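Protocol step 4 of 6: structure prediction from sequence.
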Amino acid sequence: MKFRFIILSLALMTMSGYGYDRVTGEQFASRSEVIGQHGMVATSHPLATQIGIDVLKKGGTAIDAAIAANIALGLMEPTGSGIGGDLFAIVWDANEQKLFGLNASGPAPQSLSLDYFKEQNLTKIPPFGPLPVTVPGAVDGWVKLHEKFGNQSFSSLFQPTIDYARKGHPVSETIAYYLDRSKEVFKEYPNFSEVWMKDGETAGKGDVF
């Protein structure tokens, strides 16, 4: 009986060596390509990705899914996305066999000039405050893309993010890192600290925000 057990164990160990989806020549796990039959969504946050996938499952277009995921990232990854930012898109329309591009970046305020910066003794654009902010273009970009390529109601694309904003969502490791790194800056701006801090600390990885 012991002999049979050893043989079985060796057989399982041998078989486990071939538990890969492709040949890499490496003895460790690595990221593999993803293959899908009906579409796919890729973002830097799992919940935003799932929101995009859910839109596709409901019959939405790739643009519907992209907009819904982008909206979610504005909540879940505020350091890199949001309604106050810009949007750039390259879209291939398989039906028309045409490539479309959209530049939804906003301009600087009309009255802001180089002379103003010189008068304020500023040699570079400050990182905080109203001066570095351009006119937001992301939302208008969503509207323009949806008008041409979307088939779901525009308001429905916001609903998943609204639900997460009301019920909460877990903070990712990356966002927790950047929040912690910025907390000394947050303390200097009451509005920032009111939103992003509690009892003098920022949210940590896995905390529900």
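Step 5 (inspection) to follow. The longest helix spans residues 2-16.
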